[in-house]
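Need tokens for this chain, all 253 residues.
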Amino acid sequence: MSDWLGLRGRRAVVTGGGSGIGRAAALALAAAGADVIAVDRDIAPLDGSGLRAEDCDISSESAVEALADRIGPCDIVVNAAGIIRPGALVDVEIADWDALISVNLTGYLLVSREFARGMTERGGGSLVHVASISGTHAQANSGAYSASKAALIVMSQQLALELGPQGIRSNTVSPGMVRTPMTEEYYQAPGVAERRDRAVPIGRVAMPDDIADVVAFLCSSRARYVTGADIVVDGGFTTTLMSWVPRPGFEGS
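Here are the structure tokens for all 253 residues:
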């Protein structure tokens, strides 16, 4: 994998690197030979991981600037930090809306633009942002989550347009259902894990490594002509939409 991806010696910053998809992505890049810095507000879970850890609140412009000063230029940024807060849009507290947008969208911009400066000096680089199928298929009662992911997908496309001449690519990965520390409580409810597995054509909900492998590819020179893309990694879940619509005479066997 390391020879094929050509990531040996590349420097990567992964936000949200303490758990879930971010941690899996950081470990996948490290396994491929990259020099990885995992960034999180809570770096204690990174003890013993073998990864360099840096604590940072990516929603703070000054904190991101200080982080970039400590780390220096890099070749790869993976934005995987994220929060979710429940609530219908008509009832959502604006403080909750602002808190989620500040991490899931503004934080990604702050990190991207800060490290893009160094990428320009190094002749190019790759930005990969973890979005969600919720960014293209609205998810009810999830507050600002879907809105933040939809905006992220377009923001990544704009970064691809603006930074392409500097040799910097920007792409999003949109996972479907994934078992992470943030979502694990859902799967503890009786029958939920089994029902979710059955809803996916591949037959199972994703684990973080399933997403991390796609992230690693997009970070690599093997994806050198891929930019402005949104790669859906959902086991085929979003292809099932029309199958829920009754069509007499078209039932499966």
